[in-house]
User: Fold this.
Amino acid sequence: MFKYLQNVGKSLMFPIAVLPAAAILMGIGYWIDPQGWGGDSAVAAFLIKSGSALIDNMSVLFAVGIAYGMSKDKSGAAAIAGLVGFLTVTTLLAPESAANIMQSTLTNTETLAFSHINNQFVGILTGLIAAALYNRFYRVELPDFLAFFSGKRLVPILTSFTMMGVALILLKVWPPFYGALVNFGEVLVDMGPLGAGIYGFFNRLLLPIGMHHALNAVFWFDFAGINDLGNFWGGTGTIGETGMYMAGFFPVFMFGLPGACLAMYHTSKPKNRKVVGGIMISAAFAAFFTGVTEPIEFSFLFVAFPLYVVHALLTGLSLFIAASMQWFAGFGFSAGFIDLMLSTSIEYSTKWYMLVVLGIGYFFLYYFIFRFMIVKFNYKTPGREDDDAEVEFEEDLKVSVKGNNWKDMAEKILFALGGKDNVLEIDNCATRLRLSVKDSTIIDEAAIKKAGAPGVLKPTKGTVQVIIGPKVQFVADAMEDLMKK
Assistant:
């Protein structure tokens, strides 16, 4: 199960990698036109819409990215299946479609619930289902009259039908679940700073499944009479009270999570730090500047869930402290530097500078907690994965083939593996071929090394690893071509 979740986390890195850049584009656009959000500036509109094209479609990116990353051979067909499945379920459960299927007028709760069906939970669920169907059916051969739909073409069709069934289940399950969260939020309203802290905890805990929007509707908008966000910017609030459900996010988003990024960078394997550093720096800057935190949170959510629970607890604590001390600021987009600076001119921003002081403390708190827990429990955060859990060979990164004749190398390795009949599956990591075989005992290791591979590993009777080097993908592709002939 842990290995499965680790693979989910790795797969999410595909779509996550593009999100920080999109967030920064939106932040710059918002900075240029903080009131109109593009309505008063063509440049701002261009930047905001360019960034929101990805941020607003994070769910579909997750569906495609997970389907691709979790498929056996990183297939584009699996990615298409993820897209097909996501479009199927979200179209069927859009408010208008749901009302037609149910043959009734939707209640307010049902309308709100189905309006938020395009969320990360549905994206991740769809991606996992599409990948599972691909791995099970991508080699199925249909009768001759249906041969065109055999193999990989079959998978998107099966995914579409499967997600139709999932949609029918969610049709009944989703509204009451969403409504229960809204009711829970309304209970917290009368609890003052403690309620704000509990809200902050569940806001982060529910983010992975996109259900934090249900709580946000209660506290930020005029859903239950609080309208914290609307009152803050509309000048209709109360000094010392308005901003209670927003202020505490600033120390976490601007400082805490960047501290977590630094901890994940320092605990990554030395050989991976250049790559991890690039990802973490961009994600940390996006969180600080714009308040978009998903690229950071999803990077450790699946591989270190206890860390995510700690993150949610610290978020709740921050909201409780800010509300208790009446250190208030507000946001229109998210709790980043841009919104903090814009909100300082609003009369409800009381002692906003103390949020920065708290944030500096949170930076070190997050850094030391994350670093301790990652090392103590050996969490496989970015750069610490078990891609090459076996002993590393320095030769992994030194392999070269004369004239880059990867096809010739692939032919020799395939022959030494016992031919096509002995090879069941071909995959690769950063430097190695990872092969499933019928019988690893018949493999000619000497012949594989003579072909140019510096090492061969046999973890089990049915698996083999052949060290190739950074250009392993070319050998894997050449072997795939030979297997098809």
